[in-house]
User: Which sequence fits this backbone?
């Protein structure tokens, strides 16, 4: 027996209802609940709660869910109209994503001007501009900032890296889908093979980079190394569409699979570290596959996971999860740098403040703009470009007004010293003079380690 179930249209971007007969995606509260769980994991990780040391994998869940929902929308439009209107698609993304992002960048740069230390100020302008124009993931790769963020003085825009990956995906992947659908005249076997090859490449490419000495920062932040999580979601959307958006009405096997998937995900979220190499040797792909099982179970008509994830508080949090994600990190950073609160306290207070701000943003800014559905692409350009340039001018003005008073921490040099120290420690000892003067002089590397221990 099959049950007709349609997922939410919200790829981290809100929800809209539609009719099953129109082929459009209908609202699924459980997917908002899943989005809320992913958000909670990320906030717990950023707050420093040890029990959620792998909470950063909530971003991976966002990626897979976005791949599923965005591809579902594109396939539904192709089925209804025979084409994919890329201009309209991008206009919807701009209306949904840009307002809250601009507010966050502007608010964060103002906050940073008041509380940032010299190291944060030294890279504030480039961090903010790269976040505003959606290339912050590559900025963090080239700057080595993520290394410093593990210890001290993290970027105020650290969390924008995942939004940059998604924005780059929103620009490129719809072109790939539209081109593939046109070339092969629909989502048939050739189109499926194309997506399958993309997913396979997304698994193999990190292995190639690892074999050639790539750092875990390069693998974690890279758009190319995270594509497998998004494409797996796209493959689920293709499977879903070709089945007529019907879920097999087999609650017992699906529930067993979902419980197993949730169990493995819970272990990963409790133990993983961004530096764990297994993540880039298929671990992120495994996470994407497990997330797919959870998505299917979440929208199954008689599944218990659907009931749990549709719980009203979770659903409501999922609706505003985009804004809450944007706002939570600068709030947590403020609490970390200006209070003595512990991780659990920072999590609770930061989450409440982020929810309040996201609720206000959703009601008074984001939804009014989204409901202005008549905004054409040209009109959006006339609004979006000046707004973005205004925020960019604000970034430049603030960073000119307040500049570092001391030399910032050179995280790259510190990392190089640490690598050299480890290399020296691994070498066998060589005969040396027993001179007292030689034995009492500390090397720069020893001084560095002593300071770290203290």
Assistant:
């Amino acid at each position: 027996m099959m049950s007709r179930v349609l997922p939410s249209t919200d790829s981290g971007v809100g929800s809209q209802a539609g009719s099953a007969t129109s082929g459009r995606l209908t609202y699924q509260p459980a997917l908002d609940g899943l989005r809320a769980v992913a958000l909670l994991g990320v906030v717990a990780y950023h707050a420093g709660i040890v029990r959620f040391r792998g909470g950063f994998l909530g971003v991976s869940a966002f990626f897979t869910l976005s791949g599923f929902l965005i591809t579902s929308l594109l396939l539904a439009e192709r089925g209804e109209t025979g084409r994919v209107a890329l201009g309209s698609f991008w206009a919807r993304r701009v209306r949904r994503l840009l307002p809250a992002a601009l507010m966050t960048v502007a608010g964060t740069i103002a906050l940073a001007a008041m509380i940032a230390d010299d190291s944060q100020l030294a890279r504030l302008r480039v961090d903010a501009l790269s976040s505003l124009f959606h290339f912050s993931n590559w900025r963090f790769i080239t700057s080595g900032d993520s290394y410093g963020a593990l210890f001290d003085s993290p970027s105020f825009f650290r969390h924008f890296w995942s939004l940059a990956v998604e924005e780059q995906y929103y620009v490129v992947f719809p072109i790939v889908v539209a081109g593939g659908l046109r070339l092969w005249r629909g989502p048939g076997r050739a189109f499926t093979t194309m997506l399958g090859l993309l997913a396979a490449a997304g698994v193999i490419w990190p292995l190639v980079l690892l074999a050639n000495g790539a750092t875990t920062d390069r693998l974690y932040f890279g758009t190319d190394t995270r594509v497998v999580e998004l494409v797996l979601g796209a493959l689920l959307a293709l499977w879903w569409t070709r089945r007529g958006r019907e879920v097999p009405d087999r609650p017992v096997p699906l529930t067993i699979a979902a419980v197993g998937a949730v169990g493995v995900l819970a272990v990963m979220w409790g133990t993983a570290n961004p530096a764990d190499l297994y993540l880039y040797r298929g671990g992120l792909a495994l996470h994407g596959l497990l997330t797919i099982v959870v998505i299917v179970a979440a929208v199954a008509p008689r599944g218990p996971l659907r009931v749990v994830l549709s719980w009203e508080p979770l659903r409501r949090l999922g609706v505003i999860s985009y804004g809450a994600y944007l706002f939570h990190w600068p709030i947590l950073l403020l609490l970390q740098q200006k209070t003595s609160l512990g991780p659990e306290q920072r999590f609770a207070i930061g989450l409440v403040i982020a929810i309040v701000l996201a609720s206000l943003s959703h009601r008074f800014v984001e939804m009014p703009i989204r409901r202005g559905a008549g905004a054409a692409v040209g009109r959006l350009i006339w609004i979006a470009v000046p707004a973005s340039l205004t925020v960019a001018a604000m970034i430049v003005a603030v960073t000119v007004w307040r500049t570092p008073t001391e030399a910032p921490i050179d995280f790259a040099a510190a990392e190089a010293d640490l690598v050299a120290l480890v290399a020296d420690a691994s070498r066998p000892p060589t005969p040396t003079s027993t001179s007292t003067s030689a034995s009492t002089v500390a090397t720069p590397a020893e001084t560095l380690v002593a300071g770290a221990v203290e």
About this structure: The longest helix spans residues 86-115. The first strand starts at residue 2 and ends at 4. Residues 1-23, 431-454 have pLDDT under 50 and may be disordered. The chain has 21 helices and two strands.
